[in-house]
Description:
Chain A has twelve helices and twelve strands. By secondary structure, chain A is α/β, with parallel strands linked by helices. Among the domains of chain A are: 1-49, Orthogonal Bundle (434 Repressor (Amino-terminal Domain)), CATH 1.10.260.40; 171-302, 3-Layer(aba) Sandwich (Rossmann fold), CATH 3.40.50.2300. The radius of gyration of chain A is 25 Å and the shape is elongated. The interface between A and B is large, with 53 and 53 residues.
Amino acid sequence: MKAENPTSRDIADLAGVSQATVSRALRNSPLVRKETRDRVQQIARELHYFVNRNAAGLRTHQSKTLALLLFDETDGTDKSMNLFFWSMLDNITRAAARRGYDVLVSLQQLTNDWHIEYQASNRADGLILLGYGDFAEYREKLDALAAAHTRFMIWGPIVNDQPGHSFGCDNEHGGYQATRHLLDLGRSRIAYIGRRALRSPEHAARYLGYVRALHSASMAPNEKLRFPADNSEKLGYEAVQKLLAVGEPFDAIFAVTDLIAIGAMRALADHGISVPKDVSVVGFDDMPLAAHVSPSLTTVQQNARMAAEGLVDGIVGLIKGQPVESRLMAPKLIIRESCGAAAAAVRR
Amino acid sequence: MKAENPTSRDIADLAGVSQATVSRALRNSPLVRKETRDRVQQIARELHYFVNRNAAGLRTHQSKTLALLLFDETDGTDKSMNLFFWSMLDNITRAAARRGYDVLVSLQQLTNDWHIEYQASNRADGLILLGYGDFAEYREKLDALAAAHTRFMIWGPIVNDQPGHSFGCDNEHGGYQATRHLLDLGRSRIAYIGRRALRSPEHAARYLGYVRALHSASMAPNEKLRFPADNSEKLGYEAVQKLLAVGEPFDAIFAVTDLIAIGAMRALADHGISVPKDVSVVGFDDMPLAAHVSPSLTTVQQNARMAAEGLVDGIVGLIKGQPVESRLMAPKLIIRESCGAAAAAVRR
DNA sequence: CTGAAAGCGCTTACAG
DNA sequence: CTGAAAGCGCTTACAG
């Protein structure tokens, strides 16, 4: 049915050279004479020849493939959280392709084995780990990866003692920017919705930025205006219900993620509280939805393209045995309608 | 630095059997005695051994990998369109994993070469093509794939003469359901926003369903209420502007995609027209955003899980040389607020 | 039930 | 600049 694929030997026969020369010519080796090289490549093209990756990989102990492991702590109902990852996936595949790597994708549940075997089986030369959540739970998996001498880059903060290398967003600075923006607009009773425990280091860093901004305005965080929430719209909604129940006055909310912010805005609307007139709301992530909700959400953007480049640079560096440093990139405040800074904000 | 991975030969030495027996034992061959098999597998586990995929693949001419090619006709600004694909990706990787396949992802631009070499280079045993858009443009690529004897499944409609196999949504039926729903609510002047040309077969099928529903109510489509639009919020917005400019009365809109519907609703809101009081709007796709806009969007859902299973079943069947039929799955009307069927609709 | 042997299609020292 | 040869780590007839 399906014709056999041509091999380098077939090309050698047609070109009248040895198979070794074909291999060299195809890889543009300077060892082979230009005319020979051109002839070989010409024939390869005519035959629609492509190097057998399994054979090449077996020989070189490389797969030229990266495995992207996406893990998701949510129950899957809040698919929207994945939007940033989607953009990351897009950018990572492109960045990887530019460097000659394919990307293997795996959606991991936290309970699954973490596919240490991707590298051990020569399916991938390195891993990129992408996920939000509780690092206390991940830690054990990361240790296992490290023990197996797996090369991996983690999307996320720089955590002391954490095995492996990471590339992340400077969440502390982002939290500072968000809060500073609210303060600059004259808001002073700024609620915080999100975690701040160390086991959730991204939230924790954003919280620290929030506190630093308050301090910079000679204020201190008000514990009555702090409500824990994981990353979901529902929990943002519920947090605002609690906030209102407490009765402590507030004029702004810093939600530690866009999803929480959107839930919070819905709760405010349901209670007849106007955003941004009565209360300003700022989120974090800049997921596509943020521009589409009403009022559109002012938020802190993590540039997915930059993130992808950082992660792919890192893992390719590790594969090549180069020294790699864990790094953070700067986030960017995106001003829309939800804080009142742009009264007649352009929505498109 | 990194210790060499163990090979089947290492296990053979430790187990005191031949390398061939190790290979058989690892693959649970009934040929090898249970005790031998258990001993070999035990040692493999202790050594954290994993079969070298390159070697196995070279030998068997299989990669146990599927390539998922996502192509996107938009300019990339309307990332939201990708949401259904994201869900597809999720479900496809899981469905593939269940069948022992990894998934390689590639985000294709229409202008790129379509990586015929995925299969020719033994990187993938088959392809899944995922994208919306204009089949006239794809056609040439599909022919090239077919000419290269590449196995592939296309997400989309069954198109006569189109090379390869497809699995898609019964868009005609979906268009019928959407329109029927509007008719059942007493709407009679139903605008259609979307393409209907054959070169855009998904839109075309939805349009045919729209027409059939109208006929079933003894109505005919009103050409003054038809406005072409590609899949973007912006174009949905603009279509409604044109619709209003024409002055032809209407009480409902069937938008051929959710994104168009959302743009349409925004345009209606900007003109002070109430949805669903004055005008009912129904979309197609049920992207996550659909539940979050206000009013929440009644739409026709394509079940991503079912779609993924269909595509993966198809491609695995093709790989195994089994007969595979192109098939359609049934869409499902999801009733929310935008048509007025659920006055006090639950938004969550 | 097990082993010896061939061979999948490359890459790369080694020799010329 | 080119070729002959080894070998990457498996799987699977072939023989026993």
